[in-house]
């Protein structure tokens, strides 16, 4: 079973020595998310081999990125021992897997200790095309061989790692292809159900709330959702590229100059499609990017030179809340401001409260910073679905087919 145990580890940031492994998992949310599928498999009398990546060890074994703490935490959550393999392939690891008895669990060491997992080729961008093609072909062959070694350890493949479903990595695609039965776990199934309904057959009115710093990060999401939503609420740093497109003063707020024409096109597209595209009508501005900066609330045309917008204002929060209250389907991806700093968290938390207050809607929080904001607000239990995949949920909302889903036989 491919799981997503890419969890934060206590002390990992502070450690200078790769030989000193962290002691325990700092946040076990992703491990808990996989428990229903893990427990179901074990309750059927099967033995279970789990595989995951952790961090970015760049294709080399590094004790700092060992999954041993995840094995220890999973044992606590299951209330039973979890065996831990010293490697993810090799005779010793395969022997451990083959020796498992019904109901027993084995977690393999970090898949990314091998470059074949991610399949990156180590060539400069200036390398000739024929050389790049040859390197890619060689890596693909190595990935298949790597996958075949992993596949020796099981009879059925299950993917419950939605957070990596957008990556065509060896454990996501090549390993799956080694099995006749390749299935989605309960977490994967839930993600596909909620995000799939929102993008293909949403209950109307459908409101999307898109924030974050840059339009360039969300171009395809914005373009795809504009063909489906009744209202699109724009906040965060990207709002000020739209301001510039409308010739509204932005001071020194974040603006992607090269995306101004795109913002104009999106505004026009929304108008033609009769979609409400709501921008902030007021903003919390600051004279520096700092929690200690001087701040004030100004109307949309009041961002003076030397000042930057770092949050939506109270009138915008009310405007957005009114629209959210009418919705039957809500997708939220991206904060409304720099919520990590207390003076600029109110807009994001106001949106979270408005979504939580609408008890008749399906609310989907689309991964990444939006999830952090909802958790910080204390309203996570009021949302219908909180996606475990940042990049994966984003690509799903863009309308892309994810490799990790496409390869499954019960997708």
Could you characterize what this model shows?
- This protein folds into 2 domains: 29-188, Rossmann fold, CATH 3.40.50.1260; 197-396, Rossmann fold, CATH 3.40.50.1260.
- Helix content is 37%, strand content 13%.
- The chain has helices spanning 29-43, 68-78, 91-98, 115-118, 129-151, 170-174, 186-200, 219-225, 239-245, 260-272, 314-325, 346-357, 369-377, 390-397, 403-406; strands at residues 48-50, 83-84, 105-107, 157-159, 182-184, 206-210, 231-234, 276-278, 282-286, 295-299, 308-312, 329-333, 362-365, 385-386.
- It has a 6-stranded parallel beta sheet, sandwiched between helices. A 3-stranded parallel beta sheet has the order 1-3-2, with helices on one face. Strands 10-9-11 form a 3-stranded antiparallel beta sheet.
- α8 (219-225) links the parallel β6 (206-210) and β7 (231-234).
- α1 crosses α2 (68-78) and α11 (314-325) packs parallel to α12 (346-357).
CATH architecture type of the largest domain: 3-Layer(aba) Sandwich
Counting H and I runs of at least 4 residues, what is the number of helices?
15
Which percent range describes the beta-strand content? 5-15%
Tell me about the largest β-sheet: 6 strands, parallel
Name the structural class.
alpha/beta
The rounded Rg comes to 23 Å
Distance from first to last alpha carbon? 15 Å
Q: Strand order within the widest sheet?
A: 8-7-6-12-13-14
Number of strand segments: 14
Task: Characterize this entry briefly.
This protein is α/β, with parallel strands linked by helices and 411 residues long. It folds into two domains: 29-188, Phosphoglycerate kinase, N-terminal domain (Rossmann fold, 3-Layer(aba) Sandwich); 197-396, Phosphoglycerate kinase, N-terminal domain (Rossmann fold).
């Amino acid at each position: 079973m491919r799981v997503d145990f890419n969890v934060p580890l206590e002390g990992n940031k502070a450690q200078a020595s790769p030989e000193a492994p962290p002691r325990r998992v700092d946040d076990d949310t992703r491990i808990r998310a996989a428990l229903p599928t893990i427990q179901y498999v074990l309750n059927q009398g099967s033995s279970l081999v789990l595989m995951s990546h952790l961090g970015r060890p760049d294709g080399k074994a590094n004790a700092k990125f060992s999954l041993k703490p995840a094995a220890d935490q999973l044992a606590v959550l299951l209330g039973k021992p979890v065996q831990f393999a010293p490697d993810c392939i090799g005779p010793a690891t395969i022997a451990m897997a083959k020796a498992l008895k019904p109901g027993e669990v084995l977690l393999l060491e970090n898949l990314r200790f091998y470059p074949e997992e991610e399949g990156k080729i180590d060539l400069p961008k200036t390398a000739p095309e024929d050389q790049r093609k040859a390197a890619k072909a060689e890596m693909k062959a190595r990935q298949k061989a790597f996958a075949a070694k992993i596949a020796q350890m099981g009879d059925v493949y299950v993917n419950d790692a939605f957070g990596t479903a957008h990556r065509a990595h060896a454990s996501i695609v090549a390993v799956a292809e080694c099995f006749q039965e390749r299935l989605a776990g309960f977490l994967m199934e839930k993600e596909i159900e909620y995000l799939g309904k929102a993008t293909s057959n949403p209950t109307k009115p459908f409101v999307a709330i898109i924030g974050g710093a840059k339009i360039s990060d969300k171009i395809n999401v914005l373009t795809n959702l504009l063909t489906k939503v009744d209202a699109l609420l724009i906040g965060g740093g990207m709002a000020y590229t739209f301001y510039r497109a409308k010739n509204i003063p932005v001071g020194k707020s974040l603006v992607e100059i090269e995306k101004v024409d795109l913002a104009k096109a999106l505004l026009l597209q929304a108008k033609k499609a009769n979609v409400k595209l709501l921008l902030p009508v007021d903003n919390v501005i600051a004279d520096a990017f700092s929690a200690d900066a001087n701040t004030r609330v100004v109307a949309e045309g009041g961002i003076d030179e030397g000042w930057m917008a770092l949050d939506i204002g109270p009138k915008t929060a009310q405007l957005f809340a009114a629209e959210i209250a009418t919705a039957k389907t809500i997708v939220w991806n991206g904060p409304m401001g720099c919520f990590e700093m207390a003076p600029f968290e109110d807009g994001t938390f106001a949106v979270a409260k408005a979504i939580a207050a609408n008890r008749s809607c399906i609310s989907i929080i689309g991964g990444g910073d939006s999830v952090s904001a909802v958790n910080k607000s204390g309203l996570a239990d009021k949302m219908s679905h909180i996606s475990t995949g940042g990049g994966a949920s984003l690509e799903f909302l863009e309308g892309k087919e994810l490799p990790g889903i496409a390869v499954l036989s019960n997708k």
